[in-house]
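agent: user wants the structure for DnaJ homolog subfamily C member 16 from Graphocephala atropunctata. delegating to structure tool.
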Amino acid sequence: MFVTQLLVLFCVALSSGSDYYELLGITKDADNKEIRRAFKKLAVTLHPDKNQGDSEAHDKFVKVTRAYEVLKDPQQRKQYDLHGEDSPSSWSQSQYHSYTYYRDHFGIYDDDPSITTLNSADFESLVENSPKQWFVNYYSPLCSHCHDLAPVWRRLAADLEGVVMFGAVNCEEDWNLCRQQNIRSYPSLVLYPSKERYAGPHAEDALTQFVLSRAVKDVQMVDTTEEWARLTAPPPPP
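agent: tool returned. relaying tokens verbatim.
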């Protein structure tokens, strides 16, 4: 139902020459997660691979892709908010992936409540200027090792919630941020603020040990079930 409503809004916006926010069906105060979600819903529906009988499918998809590219980037979004859209001739320069990329790989961690999808718009404020520790996964959705790590990363983030913050950066989407952080391979796992890079196996136990051994919080290691039972037992009645 929501996708149908979004498509109606998109068609109205496209025919009326409306702005990028209306093309994506979002408000002007939408955050980056809302922008990504709106774009993905449109991408899997409007992609030319799925609309081969529509002679205008390519142009429609280029326009919605251009809207996404501008609004996801803080500098381009600021310029757009001040001056409006650029020349339509630049839309033809927009590149896009295959339909299966948007269906299966776009925003791997967007729906995980324990993992924050980071990008250039919020990385400095959330990570670099934060008093909290962050463990950040720099990945490419086209990397098979990144997909192998994904279920482990989700469990790790859920199990260690409250110990450190877990983030993810899609380097296909935000290559400039990954370049600034000197990311050269995927997946790259970096602990902030120390910027220490994890170089061990991607096993859950090894990753857990790495985080706990460096956590700023007062974490007590428990070696036996008896010790755990003692520490977690309710206090005796008065």
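agent: one observation worth passing along. The first strand starts at residue 115 and ends at 117.
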